[in-house]
Amino acid sequence: MRNITATTRTMLLLVITILMGNAYHGEAIACPQVNMYLAQCLPYLKAGGNPSPMCCNGLNSLKAAAPAKSDRQVACNCLKSVANTIPGINDDYAKQLPAKCGVNIGVPFSKTVDCNSIN
C-alpha cells in the first residue's frame, strides 16, 4: 500500500469516512464526519492559496453539524489529531482557513490548541 498516490489515499479516506459517517447520523459529531467535511481542504492546508468552494462548503457543513459546545470540542480534537497526523499540513494555513472561507465555526484548527477551552 506504499505506492498509493495522495489523490488515491484522499479518495479512500473520503469513501471510508462517508461509510462510517452514516453510522453516526442523528448522534453527536464524530471524527469520521469531521474528516469527511474537510477532506477537500487538504490541498489548501498543505499548499495555501485559496481554499476550494468544496472545502468551504465542507466547513459550513461542519459548523452546522457542531452546534453544541460538546460537538465543537469533539470537532476540535479531531482537527487537532488530523493536523498532527497528516504530514505537510501547515498550521498557519489551517488557522486562516475559516477566515478565507468566511465561516466562523468556533473551532480553531491548530496543532497546539487546547480543545477544553472551546465555548
UniProtKB/TrEMBL annotation:
<dbReference type="InterPro" id="IPR016140">
    <property type="entry name" value="Bifunc_inhib/LTP/seed_store"/>
</dbReference>
<dbReference type="Pfam" id="PF00234">
    <property type="entry name" value="Tryp_alpha_amyl"/>
</dbReference>
<dbReference type="InterPro" id="IPR036312">
    <property type="entry name" value="Bifun_inhib/LTP/seed_sf"/>
</dbReference>
<dbReference type="InterPro" id="IPR000528">
    <property type="entry name" value="Plant_nsLTP"/>
</dbReference>
<comment type="similarity">
    <text>Belongs to the plant LTP family.</text>
</comment>
<dbReference type="GO" id="GO:0008289">
    <property type="term" value="F:lipid binding"/>
</dbReference>
<keyword id="KW-0446">Lipid-binding</keyword>
<keyword id="KW-0732">Signal</keyword>
<protein>
    <recommendedName>
        <fullName>Non-specific lipid-transfer protein</fullName>
    </recommendedName>
</protein>
<comment type="function">
    <text>Plant non-specific lipid-transfer proteins transfer phospholipids as well as galactolipids across membranes. May play a role in wax or cutin deposition in the cell walls of expanding epidermal cells and certain secretory tissues.</text>
</comment>
<keyword id="KW-0813">Transport</keyword>
<feature type="signal peptide">
    <location>
        <begin position="1"/>
        <end position="28"/>
    </location>
</feature>
<feature type="domain" description="Bifunctional inhibitor/plant lipid transfer protein/seed storage helical">
    <location>
        <begin position="31"/>
        <end position="115"/>
    </location>
</feature>
<dbReference type="GO" id="GO:0006869">
    <property type="term" value="P:lipid transport"/>
</dbReference>
